[in-house]
């Protein structure tokens, strides 16, 4: 579906206009005819629609969340009792490596990318992203990368060097299986998704905002996603270099990390953490954005100090580049470096603290509605603050030297990543589910989901503070009864508590999956504006039409949708409702554009992305296969560059157009 | 690239077309890629556990000439962009082909240089210097090669009049990439060849 002919105005049209023209591709581009299916599996496989791609990102991320979660449960079962026998040492190494890799690269990042894909164009009043085909290409790269990384499980063992894969430990001597090779090549491919996604979303946000939407009228979610994309834009190439060096070392005998030849073991650490620290803000800022959307809606108040939230987000983006070496305090950097990075790390707590205060004051005096989305957001504020405080203790270098490589660190980053990033994403699920699927997630199940997750998460990760301060090291596959200690602080008790907690947590997440099924089976449609929301993504049908908006709204306010529904009473200075959501939508419908150009589906993103894992496997097993993959890539680029991203009208049988092309995008 | 590319260029919030803004962002990202590779080389250039040292094998006059050829290709690229903006198809194709030939001369020089170094005992696996030298200059060479393919592909498509979207913008985008790759070479040439270890 690429050109939408709309029937006469004043007729409310369902999700897709019934009077769409018959589509027959009359020209061939490259070698394949343009795909035209608008329903069925083909419409998903070749889609360039940002909403479909957003859902596909979400589905893949959810799958990997379950995989990564099961890996975590195996780790906790192994550590529940002394001399655990669930996993052997080798398998345990693979398990914690792949747990972290999966959760970071294949769950939190793509889930945030899914939300960004779906909601950024809607929030800025655009009809799609700037480069729809590149968007599709990014999704397929992510999927290909995730498959390649996990393929190693079946081909001789997964990567086993920890998610930061410190070289020379990850060299062929200490990690002889192919796991690390699959890991480097898979992440390289997944990195393409992040890089192209970053370029795409930045251009979209900078270039395609609805008329009147200045940068300081953009919703906070879109703002923080933009900051994240800038972080990715500059961080991904650094990990790309590191991954290439490691691949060249392992596959082609280069010496980059060969200490015997004089290599510097800190090279990898620097390259990795220059990527890795901005990466942690890549993980948390999308959730901060979601919370900044959810809290005002359920507090019935505008966000407190909008500019402060925006600028503190940007400040995190800048300062985030100057703190990477706090991951390396124990590596002997020298006192000056340690002092500088220590102070910078303390400083970055300030903009984060600003956000916490803004959220709290948004709730202050508000008419609070404790929906499940709101519960998860409040949960984030509390749990992230706990994780943030333990983070500040790491910034003090002498203290960090004690804590390095203990469970105290594990406790810290699970409070900020689980209690922060993942709670934010869950808040987003409950808040945006009616928008994405037209049905509300069950609030009762949602409440159970929330409480099991909060209790499970605190039971699992809270005791790890104690375990760490008692000296239990990370990444040890067993602990012994003899060294467990005695009394309140004995690690045997707290390890058991943490393991039971992980099962509680698993049950909480299972409730979410059950909730999805229950909701999908329910026949009850969500109301148009179930939460009395404030931003543009709610100013369209649920789920949104393919072209998002019947007419592109003109924006006059931050929280435009709210200001169309409510006006300030000049006498009492209170807000009173002047229009319902349905009336606002009907107004847009009356001024609907009649001839809308949408980007057309394409085979090439999928074909191009298929070439990449073929090249990766070829590098590992047989160079001729890599050449075949290279040819697939060349063929795809050839077809891609000859194909206009918006089909020309002659591609379609149907009414010839004399209308005005609106919302056409490049790609 | 849409048929309405020029129309859209006026409709964007920044006034820059999507493609141009995207290309600038991509080049910004590429700076960090070469930054990482150059840092690795600078760290390792003096670490020669085996095989020749940089001073022993660099042939500065030869590399200066090939660098000059690459820089001149930026000039012909500018002429191509200028011809494309004047809708001069013949001129565009001519200058793009010349640019590609100059780029190919540079890559040919690099192949010759690599062969010569290899024969003098500097392999990819010989020393840290060798690994990081070949990786850095190899990445640059691949970038130039990709540029040559883009130039020649554009000429081939243009001759069959099948360029989708705005021609002058497509040429300008290839030009941005090409100039960027040239500028990176100026930095590499200075840091790698001219500054003694």
Describe the fold and architecture.
The complex is a heterodimer of chains A (667) and B (197). Chain A is built from 18 helices and 6 strands. Chain A is an all-alpha fold. Among the domains of chain A are: 264-360 and 371-504, Cytochrome c oxidase-like, subunit I domain (Cytochrome C Oxidase, Chain A, Up-down Bundle), CATH 1.20.210; 527-598, no CATH class. Residues 1-10 of chain B have low confidence and may be disordered. The termini of chain B are far apart. Chain B has one domain (23-194): Cytochrome c oxidase, subunit III, four-helix bundle (Four Helix Bundle (Hemerythrin (Met), subunit A)), CATH 1.20.120. Classes of the chains: A mainly alpha (667), B mainly alpha (197). Chains A and B meet through α5 and α6 of A and α1, α2 and α6 of B.
Largest sheet of chain B: none
The number of helices of chain B is 7
What count of helical segments of chain A does DSSP give? Answer: 18
Number of domains of chain B: 1
- The radius of gyration over CA of chain A amounts to 26 Å
Structural class by helix and strand composition of chain B? mainly alpha
Helix % of chain A is: 55-70%
Major sheet summary line of chain A: 2 strands, antiparallel
User: End-to-end span of chain A in angstroms?
Assistant: 16 Å
CATH class of chain B: Mainly Alpha
- The gyration radius over C-alpha positions of chain B equals 19 Å
Trace the largest sheet of chain A across and list its strands. 1-6
What low-confidence regions of chain A span 5 or more consecutive residues with pLDDT below 50? 7-22, 652-667
* Overall geometry of chain A: globular
Distance between the termini of chain B: 47 Å
Biggest interface pair, residues each?
A: A-B, 50 and 46 residues
Query: How many DSSP E strands of chain A?
Result: 6
**Could you please say which CATH topology of chain B applies here?**
Four Helix Bundle (Hemerythrin (Met), subunit A)
Percent of residues in helices of chain B? over 70%
Number of strands of chain B: 0
């Amino acid at each position: 579906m690429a050109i939408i002919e709309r029937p006469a105005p004043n007729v409310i049209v369902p999700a897709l206009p019934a009077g769409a023209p018959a589509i027959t591709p009359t020209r061939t581009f490259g070698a394949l005819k343009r795909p035209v299916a608008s329903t069925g599996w083909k419409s998903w496989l070749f889609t360039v629609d940002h909403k479909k791609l957003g859902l596909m990102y979400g589905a893949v991320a959810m799958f990997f969340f379950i995989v990564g979660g099961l890996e975590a449960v195996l780790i906790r079962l192994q550590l529940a009792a002394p001399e655990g026998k669930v996993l052997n040492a080798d398998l345990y190494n693979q398990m914690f490596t792949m747990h972290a890799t999966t959760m970071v690269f294949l769950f939190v990042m793509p889930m945030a990318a899914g939300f960004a894909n779906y909601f950024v164009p809607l929030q800025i009043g655009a009809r799609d992203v700037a480069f729809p085909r590149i968007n599709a290409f990014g999704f397929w790269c992510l999927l290909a990368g995730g498959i390649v990384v996990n393929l190693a499980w079946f081909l001789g063992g997964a990567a086993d060097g920890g998610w930061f894969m410190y070289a020379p430990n990850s060299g062929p001597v200490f990690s002889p299986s192919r796991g690390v090779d699959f890991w480097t090549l898979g992440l390289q491919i997944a990195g393409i998704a992040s890089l192209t996604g970053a370029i795409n979303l930045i251009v979209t946000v900078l270039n395609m905002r609805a008329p009147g939407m200045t940068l300081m009228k953009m919703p906070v979610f879109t703002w923080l996603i933009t900051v994240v994309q800038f972080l990715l834009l500059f961080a991904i190439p650094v990990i790309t270099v590191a991954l290439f060096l490691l691949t060249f070392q392992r596959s082609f005998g280069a010496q980059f990390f060969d200490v015997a030849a004089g290599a510097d073991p800190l090279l990898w650490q620097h390259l990795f953490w220059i990527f890795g620290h901005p990466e942690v803000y890549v993980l948390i800022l999308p959730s901060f954005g979601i919370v900044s959307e959810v809290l005002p809606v359920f507090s019935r108040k505008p966000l407190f100090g909008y500019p402060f939230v925006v600028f503190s987000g940007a400040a995190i983006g800048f300062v985030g580049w100057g703190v990477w070496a706090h991951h390396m305090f124990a590596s002997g950097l020298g006192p000056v470096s340690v002092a500088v990075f220590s102070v910078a790390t303390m400083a970055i707590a300030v903009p984060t603290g600003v956000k916490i205060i803004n959220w709290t004051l948004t709730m202050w005096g508000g008419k609070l509605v404790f929906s499940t989305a709101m519960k998860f957001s409040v949960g984030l504020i509390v749990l992230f603050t706990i994780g943030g405080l333990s983070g500040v203790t790491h910034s003090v270098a002498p203290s960090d030297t004690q804590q390095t490589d203990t469970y105290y660190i594990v406790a810290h980053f699970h409070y900020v990543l689980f209690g922060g990033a993942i709670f934010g994403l869950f808040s987003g699920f409950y808040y945006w589910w009616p928008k994405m699927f037209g049905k509300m997630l069950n609030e009762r199940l949602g409440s159970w989901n929330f409480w099991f997750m909060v209790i499970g998460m605190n039971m699992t990760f809270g005791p790890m503070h104690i375990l760490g301060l008692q000296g239990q090291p990370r990444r040890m596959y067993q602990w012994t009864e003899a060294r467990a200690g005695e009394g309140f602080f004995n690690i045997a008790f707290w390890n058991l508590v943490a393991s039971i907690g992980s099962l509680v947590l698993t049950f909480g997440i299972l409730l979410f999956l059950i909730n999805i099924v229950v909701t999908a089976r329910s026949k009850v449609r969500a109301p148009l504006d179930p939460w009395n929301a404030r931003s543009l993504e709610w100013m369209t049908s649920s789920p949104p039409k393919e072209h998002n908006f019947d007419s592109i709204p003109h924006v006059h306010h931050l929280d435009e949708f709210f200001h169309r529904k409510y006006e300030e009473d000049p006498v009492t200075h209170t807000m009173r409702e002047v229009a319902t959501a349905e009336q606002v939508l009907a107004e847009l419908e009356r001024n609907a554009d009649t001839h809308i150009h949408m980007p057309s589906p394409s085979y090439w993103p999928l074909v191009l992305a298929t070439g990449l894992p073929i090249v990766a496997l070829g590098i590992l097993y047989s160079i001729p296969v890599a050449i075949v993959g290279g040819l697939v890539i060349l063929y795809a680029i050839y077809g891609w560059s000859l194909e206009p991203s918006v089909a020309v009208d002659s591609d379609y049988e149907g009414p010839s157009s004399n209308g005005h092309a609106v919302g056409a995008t490049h790609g | 690239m849409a048929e309405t590319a020029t129309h859209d260029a006026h409709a964007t919030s920044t006034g820059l077309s999507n493609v141009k803004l995207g290309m600038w962002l991509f080049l910004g990202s590429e700076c960090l890629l070469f930054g990482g590779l150059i840092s690795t080389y600078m760290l390792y250039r003096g670490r020669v556990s085996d095989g020749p040292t940089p001073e022993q094998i660099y042939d500065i006059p030869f590399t200066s000439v090939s660098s000059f050829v690459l820089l001149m290709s930026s000039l012909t690229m500018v002429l191509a962009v200028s011809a494309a903006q004047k809708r001069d198809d013949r001129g565009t194709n001519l200058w793009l082909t010349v640019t590609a030939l100059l780029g190919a001369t540079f890559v040919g020089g690099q192949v010759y240089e690599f062969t010569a170094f290899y024969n003098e005992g500097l392999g990819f696996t010989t020393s840290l210097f060798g690994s990081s030298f070949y990786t850095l200059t190899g990445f640059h060479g691949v970038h130039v090669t990709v540029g040559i393919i883009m130039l020649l592909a554009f000429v081939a498509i243009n001759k069959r009049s099948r360029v989708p979207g705005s021609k002058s913008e497509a040429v300008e985008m290839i030009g941005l990439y090409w100039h960027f790759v040239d500028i990176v070479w100026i930095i590499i040439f200075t840091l790698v060849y001219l500054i003694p270890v």
